Amino acid sequence: xxxxxxxxxxxxxxxxxxxxxxxxxxxxxxxxxxxxxxxxxxxxxxxxxxxxxxxxxxxxxxxxxxxxxxxxxxxxxxxxxxxxxxxxxxxxxxxxxxxxxxxxxxxxxxxxxxxxxxxxxxxxxxxxxxxxxxxxxxxxxxxxxxxxxxxxxxxxxxxxxxxxxxxxxxxxxxxxxxxxxxxxxxxxxxxxxxxxxxxxxxxxxxxxxxxxxxxxxxxxxxxxxxxxxxxxxxxxxxxxxxxxxxxxxxxxxxxxxxxxxxxxxxxxxxxxxxxxxxxxxxxxxxxxxxxxxxxxxxxxxxxxxxxxxx
Amino acid sequence: xxxxxxxxxxxxxxxxxxxxxxxxxxxxxxxxxxxxxxxxxxxxxxxxxxxxxxxxxxxxxxxxxxxxxxxxxxxxxxxxxxxxxxxxxxxxxxxxxxxxxxxxxxxxxxxxxxxxx
Lengths: 310, 117
Description:
The structure holds 2 protein chains of 2 kinds.
Chain A: E1 2-7, E2 16-19, H1 22-34, E3 53-58, E4 72-76, H2 83-93, H3 115-124, E5 130-135, H4 145-148, E6 159-164, H5 169-172, H6 175-180, H7 183-188, H8 211-220, E7 224-225, E8 238-246, E9 251-258, E10 264-265, E11 296-303
Helix pairs in contact in A: 2-3
Chain B: E1 4-8, E2 17-19, H1 22-33, E3 52-56, E4 63-69, E5 72-77, E6 82-86, H2 91-98, H3 106-116
Antiparallel strand pairs in B: 1-2, 1-3, 3-4, 4-5, 5-6
């Protein structure tokens, strides 16, 4: 038997269905084994909304006896098309089988009847939760940033960046996820559960909490300064902002990420993701919002697919 | 197992934490048990900057976690019920903060103490 789980929700449990027709299960596994390049062994760690992928778990030992596949696979779908989408359609089609079942979801509206249509719709618009936009210089950098020596790249170019839909539930609903991911995880949209630190991903963590040093660590992890564009192959490319609390006593760094809705989201330490500042106002500009002790604005950066944080 | 204290203030860096001695732990739990229940639906502080002090008492204590901030202690019992206790003059919060002296950087303690002044 195979168990298929749609990685689609962030607040409620994901829907799961079983393929218990042995021939169907084996045929599906063989097809997946021929497309190993499209599969991963674990789910991605970003918080995109929509159908992110499909888990396929082999839950009986006879089905895969002579087929070379791990017992657990993940078919990522965000930004994918072509063969990955065809495979996904086949896996979703198993929902129509007489023996297919959808796991009960306590207290949530039933999705069984419309689930296939819902997932198919999500599949055909897999990145609807993300928006690509042009990021062009519109104003001069505020005075003082250049003095920090970490100003945005002095390139008069327009970059295409990506803005994700605000999805705080991905970070807030699970207490462990909330506690073990910080502002840097949220800015990079990578849930590592390591309370990520700039520079640790590349093995050269910051040596002081200053704009230049935290910037150095972040660039080492693979971020770019704003207007130093990433190619389309590096999607999703998020616009983020770095600030520092210079002390005395209170010395720390903090990150914000621009969201599809136009505001900025952030995650203060192990607390919940939010889109408001210390005055309770929705953040439309991280340079001017109330940042409490994080008074030093270091600059804007891009994160991307290959950014490695830890 | 001794009680653990976490100063909840940072965003990027991990928060400073330390463990209490048994003597300190007993003193803090006595202080805690003397606080009167109060009404209200106050939630833990959020946002940037100092948010409060999180006490994780020993396993045999009445509460599993206590968040102390702004004159209120939000104490979670074993059933998950949150008790709102009045921390008059922030006495418990100040005492908890002082137990960090010598265990974490003095300038952090001083910065938070200024906020509590």
